[in-house]
Every structure is written in C-alpha cells, then in structure tokens.
Known about the structure:
The chain has about 850 residues and is of the alpha/beta class. It folds into seven domains: about 20-105, Rossmann fold (3-Layer(aba) Sandwich); about 115-205, BRCT domain (Rossmann fold), CATH 3.40.50; about 230-335, 3-Layer(aba) Sandwich (Rossmann fold); about 350-450, BRCT domain (Rossmann fold), CATH 3.40.50.10190; about 460-555, no CATH class; about 570-725, Rossmann fold (3-Layer(aba) Sandwich), CATH 3.40.50; about 735-869, BRCT domain (Rossmann fold, 3-Layer(aba) Sandwich), CATH 3.40.50.10190. It has 31 helices and 26 strands. It has a four-stranded parallel sheet with strand order 2-1-5-6. A four-stranded parallel sheet has the order 8-7-9-10. It is globular, with a radius of gyration of 31 Å. It holds the Pfam family RTT107_BRCT_5. This is BRCT domain-containing protein. InterPro entries: BRCT_dom, BRCT_dom_sf, CellCycle_DNARepair_Reg.
Amino acid sequence: MEDTTMMEGSQPLFQDKLFAIVPTTLLQDRIHQLAEDIAAGGGTVVPFDDSTGRIEKLNNIDFIISATTDFPDYYRALDLMKDVVKPTWVDACIQTGKSKNPRAFSPDPALFMSDVIVCCGDIPEGDQEAIAGGVLAMGGQFSALLTKMVTHLIALDMDEDKCQMAVRKHLPLKIVLPHWFDDCLKVGRRINERPYLLPDPEITRIEKAGPIPPTKTSPDIRDATNPEPKEDPYPTTPPAHLEQARKLKAFEGKKVKLGEDLPINSRLKGTITDLIKTSGGDVTTNINEASIYVCSFRDGDDYIKASQARKDVGSLGWLYYLITHDTWTNPMRRMLHYPRPREGVPGFSNYKISISSYTGEARVYLENLIKATGAEFTKTFKQDNTHLIAAHKNSEKCDAAQEWNVKVLNHLWLEDSYAKCKQHAETDPRYTYFPLRTNMGEILGSTEIDRDAVERRFFPKSRKPKAVTAVAQSVGVPGSSSALGRAHSDNVGRGSPLVEKTSRRTKTVEDVATPVTARHIDGKENRTPGSRGAKDRATAKLHESAGDIAQFEKEMKRKGGVVYGGRRHKEEEAADKSKKKARDSTSSKRSIDEVEADDASTEDEAMDEPAKKNKKARKQKLTPIKYRILVSKDERWTGNPDRESKDKARLREIGLFVMDDYKKADLLCAPKVVRTKKFVAAIASGPTLISSAFIDYALRHNKIPAPEKFPIEGKKDFEKSFDINVDEGIARAKQNKHRLLKDWVIFCTQGVSGGFDTYNEIIQANGGRCQMWKGRTTTLNATKRKIDTQPQEVSQNLQEDEGDILYLISDPKKSEFPLWKSFRELAVKHDMKARIVKTEWVLFVAMAQYVHWDAEWELNEEVVNAMNE
C-alpha cells in the first residue's frame, strides 16, 4: 500500500538521502529540475559519469531516478536493494509532502500498471476491492476519491456521479469499463483502453467479427526484428531537442570482441571496428579483456566465460542497435538482441508455425522469432501447420485453423517459451485468450529474456545466494517481479513478465516470520551497525508489498478475474473451518466454480470506510449452494448490470447460485420452454425446469421455494409443435450424462442460421465435436461409430444411430451447394455416408436426448430447387 509516512516538523523531505539520475531519454532541462527539487528537499545528487554510463559509488546511493530499466547498473542496483524509481516519484513526493511508495513508481516493465492511478465508480464493493488489490500488485495505485491525479476511472455507465464530475471538471483521465482491467490481468499486459472507453465502448456496440483496427509498430520491437541484420550499421543523428540528452556513448572506454560465429565478412568487420573505435571503444580478440561480447549462439567457451563474468553479451542485431542509437540497452531487454539457442527451444523442431494479422516489422519480428525457436515458419497457412500465432481471431486463417484443428495462440506463448527456452503449456488460458476488439500486436515484444533460465541452461555457475537478497526479491523489489510472478503464475503463465527474474530468492512471503518495521525516509529509526543497507530495505519492502500480493494472489484464483464480485473477510476465512468440512460432505461434488463463487459473492466493507460494526454484526459465512441455476430468455436484467449484480448476490446469500455453465445446472429457468443456445445446451445436464416466477419468489421472500411449485410453462405447446416430450428428454439426459454424442464429429457450415457457435456449444454439451465446414480439404479423424462401446444406459438412446453417417448441418440455400458437393466427396473418401441436414435435426436430438432420424430434415439440391420454384 502507499507509504503515508509524514515528515516531522520542518525536516526536509529528502534529508541525508543520496540520489543518482540516469540521463538516458531525459532532457537536460528535466534533469536540472529534478536536481533542484531534490536539493530543495535536502537530498544530494551524485554526478552521473557520462563517459562510462555507470553510477559512481552505487553502494552509497539511496534512490536511482530513471525513466527506464535500460541502464548498465540496473540489475546490480537490484542486488544491492536500491530503489529505482521514475522521475514522477520526485514530483509526487513534493506535491504531497510525503514519501511515496517507490514500488508504485518503478520503471520495471513487469509492473505493467505503473503510472496508473485507478478510481472506481458505482460498481459493486467487492469488485472495487479486487481491482484495488490487482492494481497495487501490478505496480499501480488506487484512490478511493476522484482527484486530479487519477488516470483511469472504472465505471459501468456515464450517468454515475463520479463520471459526471469528471466531465464537469474536465479531468484528464480515461473512463473505462471494468472489463479493461480484467483483460489486462488475463494477458498479463496493459492493453489499449480504446475498445473499453465510455460512453460508447466498442466491445458493446461492434460485432466480434468486425474488422479490428490495425496497430502501429510496437516500440518494443523497433530495430529489434532481426538477430542478424543484412544492411550495414549506420549511426543516426538525434533530433536537435534530444542533443543534450544523448551524451551516453555506447562504446566509450569499452572493448568489444566479435564472435567467430557471426555471419560477417572482412569488409563488414572492418566497418564495425571503425565505428566502435570512432565511438571511443576498441575491438579485441581476448575475451578476458573484453567488456562486450557479440555472437550469434549461446555456446562456446567465450560465450560461457563472458556470461559468467557478467559481461554484456548480445547478438549482431543488438550491436547494430548500439551503433545506430549510440545509447546502451540491455541485450536481454529484447528477444532478438540476445544470442539464440543453437538447437532452439526443446520440442519446437516438430512444429510448423504460421502467423495471422501481423504486418510490417511485427511480421518480420515474429518470423525470425519462430525460426529462433527451432520451429519451421510458413508464410502460407496450410492444414499441416501445427500452430497459428494470431493478433486477433477475426481472420480467415483463424477460421481455417478451427476447421483443421490447428492450435490458435497469441504471441505471448511464443515469447514466453523463448524467454525461458522451455515450451509453455498451450492450454494456458493466457495464451488462448484474445480480448475483444483488441489487436495483440500492440504489446508485441514486451517480454524480456529470463536471465535465470538462460543461466541455468547455458552457463551454470555455482554461487551461494544471500539470504537477505532472497527475501527482498521475493517481495517486490523495484524493477523485479519475483513476488508478482509467484502470485500470478497460476493465471498468466510462468513465462509472463510477472515471472521470477532471479533464482537468488529462497523464501516466500509466508516463510518470513520475523516482525517487520517499515523504513522511514527521515532515517531516525534505530539501526544496528551495518543495517542501513540490504537488511532494512528487504524488510521494508516485505512490509509494503506482502498485503497487496497476498490479496492479488487470492483474487486471481477466482474464475472470471475481478469483474464479477468481491472477497471474504479474513476473519470469515479463518472461522468455521469445521463447518466447511460438513458442508463439503453434504454437497454433491461441489465444483471449483462453486467454491470460487462463495468468494466472489461475499461483500466486504469499503477500503476507506472506518469500521462501524462489530464482529457480531458482520455477515456470517455464506449459505452452502443448494441449487445452481442457469437462466435463459429472462429479460429482467437486460441493460441493467447493476441490478443483475445485486440480485445475483442476494440469491447467492440464500443458497442459489446463478451461473452460465450449462454443464453444471441443477435448475433451468425460463419464462417458457424455448430453443435458445443456453436452454438446449443445458438440457444435457438433466436439470429441473422452472419458470421465472421461481426467482421472483426467492427475491421477494428472501428464501428458496420448492422448485416443483414453479413448473415451466409452455410444455404442452412445445411438445405439440416439435413432437418432443420434454420430461422424457430430461430423464434421458440424466442417463446420458453428456455422452449422447461421444465420439461424434459433426460438421457445420459457417453461415448456418443461428451461427456456428450455437451448434458448436450444443454438440459439445452432449460430448461431441463440431467442426466448421468451408469446403476445404481437411484432416478428418472421425471414424465409424460403434454403439456397443457406449455404456448401457446411453446405448439405449443410440438405437437409431447408423454408425457410418457423417452429418453436415446447413441451410436450404443454393449458395451452400458447392459445400455439399465437396462434403459428399469427403465422406466417400473416408468410407462413410454423407447426410446434409437442417438445424432441426441437431435441435431435436439435443432436446429429446436420443438419436433419431426423419427424412424431412434432409437437405439436397432437389429439395432446395423445389422450394424456390
């Protein structure tokens, strides 16, 4: 949480503190202003050595001011427990007259909410607390009040009071839906706010399939797209307004060794040598003399010696970057600035990877990154590809991938696997998630090479870690993301920017039992000899960050992120453990979702509200879930998310859990029997059908009525219209247990009425698999079905299954004729019979819960032509 330490009396804010200002990317005027502000606050600025680019007497420095982590002493500063903060930290301290939490101003790219100050509008209290915990854990700040410092106001509607105030006072902030924050957490990056901006957010008004705006080249991949550039390096002249800020000479006083594996001829080698010498450096053939080693691959004696000695080791692309920009950058900051593994990433040699919706430098970067992993890159996407890396899923390639069963992942899977030189799980939701209306190319290249993973694999060297360093790094040193990686790893993948960056940690937050005293900037706390350094800094950071990280870790475990509900009181979590065991024994196989729903539905007190109630007055533990309800075609909450949230919370308090998972529904609620996607898919669970009056009664009387007293309406009319006995269908569903269409592969055309996704979910709910059919040759793994392999209770509902029929769901339209022809050819090829059917066939099977065939459902060219005559 934010440090609110007050300065006593007239004591200067930065008294007796030593500062270093890293000038890279800062204008000279800004540097002078910072120096003056620090001096006015009683601090001292230690001169920065432009000739070497290093910080003098780093051990004595208290704060390092830098806009980025791209300076040579960054990781050494972390090892020494130094606070690395952005220039805005100085401004914020002076404005408030207090020392601000350095972690909230860290330039570490892993803390992707740095520079973000969030305030919440009229959204549920539990959601506010979840958002606050996540923002703080990701390096941002949370404000209960709307102030001029707020950068993001999270709200559901512009009619809210805080939104109206922001508009009236012309506050320079962005008003976004809570879905923006949730999606940021899901991908582990700060994504563009554009699709979530109120009053007219794209995600609510533009169809998913609509074109997604192209993105500009990500700044993280500029001049970093090729590990072995073909053109000669050429230094650029900085703009006039940056002239004074570009004093750092990349090769000043340094010796460079060029590796033997570099693809350069004698002419180019001479050009590079001249440029290095012109910049004040030299070229050597002795690795022991060199301070920089440039090579192509992570092997060889020179690579190992240079790496173990902590010299700068980079690729030819990195060397070109230094020459072009005449400024130092960490070679591990960008993927292709660091030498490649000669054998690639283990397992990737078996892959054929293509990309979708990336253009220009982004496409070149991904092409070279794929090759660096050892996989085969294909410009053309074909059915023998194993993976498709996409910026979004609205493309023909993504449609074809679904048809061909090719894995579609975002680029974070590729980057994280390369960063650790270890393949990450393709099923991790972080890699399969594509935020609506967002182009993932906007965050391309934001992953760094994992220093520890590279060291363990390519140049291991035994060394004993320091316990103090281990503790501090595990709780969130500025610029390090160890603790965040631990808190977030189960949700965003171990290769995320929130991954532990150092192996020197040995303890987690829970392991530290020593009482911790917060470090005050006035320097008046009692100290033992030698305590001024690492020990105090480590314990202070543990004190500052442990609560935020623990809260965020808990919130991220809940399904759906932080948009849908709050958290429990800590007192409630500790209480009634014996009741939990009893509840679990009486509840039938409670799912993970239900346990998480208990957390999600309990509201806590407001963060900034003083305690007004004693423990006896607080809400007791939630009632165990008695019924899980899926609601379909009930319009009570349409366009009113606030009422929906409150009603669902009330229902949960009495034991009714309203959810959208049709596979776990006990009760299926609707005004009448309908054929919506939700309703038909949920039938496979064998739920009790109830009318909407059931919910009305529960909300009005605050108790659960008997479901049988609220039977669903319209059963007789439905049975008459569709020749389906609803009660018998429910009984069969209980026998089938989602296995009616097990081992079935059913094809469906893209333009079918109702949409492919509707029939895909219905078929999946019954255990089958649905594939989109576009008439292309596809890899078909469906075979003739054997009824005798099904359990007896299911087999009796499959008596009419002919086993060798291949189904295609389509519409009676002439435009579908070409698809039918190629589908018949496909069926013949696999010794099966093609049957092209109306949507009525699958709806009947799913509602009646047995396989049945009627000739009136069949489609062919003659039938369609006759309809149009």
